[in-house]
Each structure stands twice: as C-alpha cells, then as structure tokens.
TrEMBL record:
It is found in: Cell membrane. Its main location: membrane. Belongs to the ABC-4 integral membrane protein family. LolC/E subfamily. GO terms for biological process: lipoprotein localization to outer membrane; lipoprotein transport. The keyword Membrane applies. The chain crosses the membrane at residues 30-56, 279-303, 323-349, 388-408. It is a multi-pass membrane protein. This is Lipoprotein-releasing system permease protein. GO terms for cellular component: plasma membrane protein complex. Residues 282-415 form the ABC3 transporter permease C-terminal domain. Residues 39-251 form the MacB-like periplasmic core domain. The keyword Plastid does not apply.
Length: 422
C-alpha cells in the first residue's frame, strides 16, 4: 500500500496541532511543567550569555579607552643615541596620514609624599601645547586648572593619589627620585616639593592613584635629562591601524627607533581578558544545552502520552512527515520563544546594568564592583550585534537539534502497536 501524500509541509493543520500540544490539559500538567522549565532555561541561558558578554565587552572597551586616553597608541623610543631631536621627530611623525598627535614626554618613577602618607608614583613631563591631545587627563579635571601649565610651576595629580596622601589644591607634594645629582660620593636622591595646581580623575584607579603630570622642561631638570626626551607618544585616528602605520612612522622618524604599540605593551593583560571571555562563553553555553536537553525529555514524554492520538492520525491519513513536523514545531516553538524572550531580558539588563549594580549594592550593603579590584569606577556593558546574533543562532540550533529525535520517534510509531491494547 502506498504512503498517503497527506497535507503539504508545515500546513496550518500541523501548526494548529502543535499549538494544541503546547497547551496542556489537566492530566498533562507535568509535561507542561517540563516544557515551562525548558523555556525558562533557554531564556535565562540566552539572557545570561548576552549580559556577561556585553559586560566583558564593555569592560575591555572601557579599559582600552582609559589606557589609550593617557598612554599613546604607539611609543617611539631611541635606540642608539639620546632623544635630543625629539621635537623634529615628533613634528615629522605628526604629518603621517592617520596620526592624530605625536607627543614627546619625560618619564620617571618617584616616591611621592604628602601630609599623611607616602606612595610610589609615575611622573610624566608633557608640554602645555600637548595637553589637549590627552583627553583622558585634560578633560577630567576635578579641582584646580591646567591654565599656564608650563609656567605655573606646579603639577597635576590623580584623585586617588591626592586622597591617599591627604593633599588638595595648593598643598605641596614632595617627590623623591633616585636619579638625582652626581657627587664625588655617588648619585644622591633628588628631593623637591611642588604645589598641586590640578587634580584629575581618569576613572581608572591604577592611573588616578599613581600618575603625576609635570611641565616638560621641569621634568627634564628634575630627572637630569637636559634637552632630551624619554620617548614620543603617538595617537592615531584609529587605534586598530597600528600595524598598517608602523612602517610609515619608522620612516618618518628619520633615525633608528624602537616602535611598540598598545597591544604589545598590554599583551598579557588583554590575552587574559580574551581567554576569560571565551571560557565564560563556553561555560554559559552549557546552560542553554541543559535547557535543550529538557526539551528532549519533555517531547519524549509528550510523544509517549500522545501515542494513541498519533496512531489515530496515522490511520486517518497523516504521513510520518506530518507527525514529525508537528512535534518538531512543538519543540522548536519552546526554543524560539525562549531565545526571543532571553534576548529581550538580556537587552533590558544591559541597558540598566549600572542602575542594577547600584541597587544590589544598596540592598546588600556591599561593594559589587570595587574600583580597586576592577580598575573602573562604573560597571560598563556594550552589546555587540555580531555576538548577539551568534548567541541567538547557537540557542536556536541547539533547540532545533533537541527536537529531532523525539519527533523522529513520534513519526516512527506503529499505529497497530499503539492501538493494540486500546
């Protein structure tokens, strides 16, 4: 006997029957509960993946923004002779297409002391004309001013360093450098006090607690650099173009130099972030996988419960393909709606993640996102369209794959065996 042709694939009849099986009657409550848990599991799994990935993207983006707001995208250092021609080198590099600014600086480690404490600090000497090219610092002045930075004779320090040392505007910070004056007895430490003219807050605790900005000429005198610079910082229009512009910058320097970019200087840090991000994705994917397995168990029980109905449908002319599609639609609906609501929930949380963090901190009376541990003063979240799409596709594929075996079992059910003991 030939197999009946039946209805066309995914006809209204199949959708109607699948929808009927999704609406449980009183004796099917347990099956409905399993389907509900599958829906909730997929929704929470997708939402959690979106939230965690968005927070990690935001965390990485904020760190890169903070780091590159103070440190250049590329650093040019001398290799054979001291950097006495830093001004000419900086001017030539600044003319390279794609370079936003080239800033010479003098840098050294010091011990900073205040009224109540001492702390290690990094002194960086910059020219007043280059301050607008350092938006991370110059655009975040909380107290004081950077006016007449070259001639005022003072320094700018971070908010956390000022708090740790018990200093404010007008107070003097004492800097002690081991690279002091050369005497017949050897090199003596250099100790000098500078008034605080400005206090900045970059928003990254590591910088706010360690950076001291000093006028360029004063830094040269303090570190015995005479007419030399430590290096030249380069800011690009696009930080991702460091590799493409390296050769042009080396040529424009016009002298032997060592060029390093922000990826090389922070390779270990960003590699660790990338590994953590990938591992979190893999671990949280297990939540969606477990929810998909719940779909298998729920559909298997539904098929067993509906064996009599399936047999009657088969004797009335329903094809095996139609039965398979009915149960596929039933399971796929759970995965599809679970994924959809997961995306909505994840998006809502990402848009309000900082408010949620503050509420939880207030509710638990604890610091949920400590700036001392995570370097940032706020919890960032940045959703990536490609990443969200991959999460949605992954959840849908797992959900659809989970429905295939129970649907196949339903299609293979022998109506004679199912009705034999009825």
């Amino acid at each position: 006997m030939a197999e009946p042709t039946g209805t066309r694939p995914f006809s209204p009849f199949e959708w109607m029957l699948a929808g009927r099986y999704l609406r449980a009657r009183r004796r099917e409550t347990f099956i409905s509960i399993i389907a509900g848990f599958s829906f909730i599991g997929i929704m929470l799994g997708v939402a959690t993946l979106i939230i965690v990935m968005a927070v990690m993207n935001g965390f990485r983006g904020e760190l890169i923004g903070k780091i590159l707001g103070v440190n250049g995208h590329m650093i040019v250092q001398p290799t054979d002779t001291p950097f006495t021609d830093f001004a000419d080198v900086a001017s030539r590099i600044a003319m390279v297409k794609g370079v936003k600014a080239a800033i010479p600086f003098v840098e050294g480690q010091v011990l900073a002391s205040g009224a109540s404490n001492s702390s290690g600090a990094l002194v960086r000497g910059v020219r007043a004309q280059d301050l607008p090219s350092l938006p991370g610092m110059s655009s975040n002045i909380r107290q004081g001013t950077l006016d007449n930075f070259d001639t005022a004779g003072g320094v700018a320090i971070g908010t956390r360093l000022a708090t740790a040392l018990g200093l404010t505007i007008g107070d003097k910070i004492t800097l002690v450098s081991p690279r002091g004056a050369v005497t017949p007895m050897g090199v003596t430490p250099r100790v000098k006090a500078y008034p605080i003219n400005a206090i900045f807050e970059i928003g990254m605790s590591e910088y706010d607690s360690s950076f001291v900005f000093m006028p360029f000429s004063e830094a040269q005198l303090y570190f015995n650099q005479d007419d030399k610079a430590t290096a030249v910082e380069i800011y690009l229009d696009d930080p991702e173009q460091t590799g493409a512009l390296r050769s042009a910058i080396e040529t424009a320097a016009g002298r032997p130099v060592l060029v390093t970019d922000w990826r090389e200087r922070n390779m270990t840090f960003f590699s660790a972030l990338e590994v953590e991000r990938n591992m979190m994705f893999m671990i949280l994917t297990l939540i969606v996988l477990v929810a998909a397995l719940n779909i298998i168990s729920g559909l298997t029980m539904l098929v067993k419960d509906k064996g009599h109905d399936i047999a009657i449908l088969r004797t009335m002319g329903a094809t095996r393909g139609a039965i398979l599609r009915v149960f596929f639609i039933t399971g796929a609906a759970i995965g599809t709606f679970g994924t959809l609501f997961g995306v909505i929930l994840g998006t809502i949380v990402c848009w309000n993640v900082e408010s949620i963090r503050q509420f939880v901190s207030w509710l638990t009376r604890t610091e949920i996102f400590s700036p001392e541990l995570y370097f940032l003063s706020r919890l960032p979240a940045k959703m990536d369209g490609t990443e969200v799409t991959s999460i949605v596709l992954m959840a849908l594929i797992l959900s659809y794959l989970a429905t295939i075996y129970p649907a196949w079992r339903a299609a293979r059910l022998d109506p004679v065996e199912a009705l034999r003991y009825e």
